Amino acid sequence: MGEAIAFYTLAALILGFAVLVVTARETVHSVLFLVATFLFVAMLYVLQHAEFLAVIQVLVYAGGIVVLYLFVVMLANLKSAPEAHEDPRRRDRLGIALAGVVLAEFVAIALYAFTGPLPASAGAAAAVGANNTEQVGWALYADYLVPFEVASILLLVAMLGAIVLAKREL
Amino acid sequence: MTITPAHYIVLSAALFAIGIIGVLARRNLIIIFMSIELMLNAVNISLVAFARQYDHVTGQAFAIFVIAVAAAEAAVGLGIIIAFYRNKETVNIDEITLMRW
């Protein structure tokens, strides 16, 4: 019962702030609503016993990526309203209708997949460590070591790419 | 009144749909990038829900990879925005027609 109350409260807050992110007039307001969304998603991770991921969410998303967005909003000091000009060939309503179709499809798949009895869990195959952080550490450094290293190379390349793109002249 | 993975998947689908609306209906490039972040978060919610359902941390490990990719995407994308703003003084995608016929 407690989990249900927490889930519905967090779901309402996440979806409400996500709608505010998409509909906000000012870009800065949108960034601040995005912080709130990320923090409530982190709380949802805690609810699902993914404590390590919740900490990473707060550190990387709410701490790092959002600061990057704030810097860009500050640097792109917009003189005219960003949405002043509109292409006459734009089809906004079609986009919203397509989003509705995708939502209906996902919900239909979820309901179809979960109406029957839930599949049994695979067993405690990865129960090496006692706590969540230890388990994620074992998964990352033992089972997924090569993807982990590839991700580090991706981050390095992205860092170099961002410097090359944003620097005035090399 | 138990919360099943289906609840989390429906929440994830709703958040993903909000992200799609943001990408398709807004014209501010920065807000479009934030909508992409929302969609990546929606994927993470479903991955963590599956990780809990199967009592296995693989889903959480993949969510960490998704966060790494999101950080890389934000860095490169915002670099492109800065480079473009320096040339054209706009972040409106309807005015970014350089490579569109």
Give an account of the 3D structure:
The complex is a heterodimer of chains A (170) and B (101). Chain A has 170 residues and is mostly helical. Chain A contains six helices and no strands. In chain A, α1 packs antiparallel against α2 and α5 packs across α6. Chain A is globular and about 55 Å long. Chain B has three helices and no strands. In chain B, α1 packs antiparallel against α2 and α2 packs antiparallel against α3.
Annotation keywords:
heterodimer, A: 170 residues, mainly alpha, 6 helices, 0% strand, globular, B: 101 residues, 3 helices, 76% helix, elongated
Would you list the SSEs of chain B in sequence order as H and E?
HHH
Q: What composes the largest sheet of chain A?
A: none
Main sheet overview of chain B: none
Q: How would you state the average pLDDT of chain B, rounded?
A: 89
Unreliable runs of chain B? none
| Strand portion of chain A | under 5%
- How many helices of chain A? The count is 6
**Percentage of helical residues of chain A?**
over 70%
Number of strands of chain A: 0
Distance between the termini of chain A: 59 Å
Computed Rg of chain B: 17 Å
Compute the CA-based radius of gyration of chain A: 21 Å
What is the SS-derived class of chain A? mainly alpha
Shape of chain B: elongated
Span between termini of chain B: 55 Å
| Class of secondary structure makeup of chain B | mainly alpha
Question: Which chains have the largest interface?
Answer: A-B, 94 and 78 residues
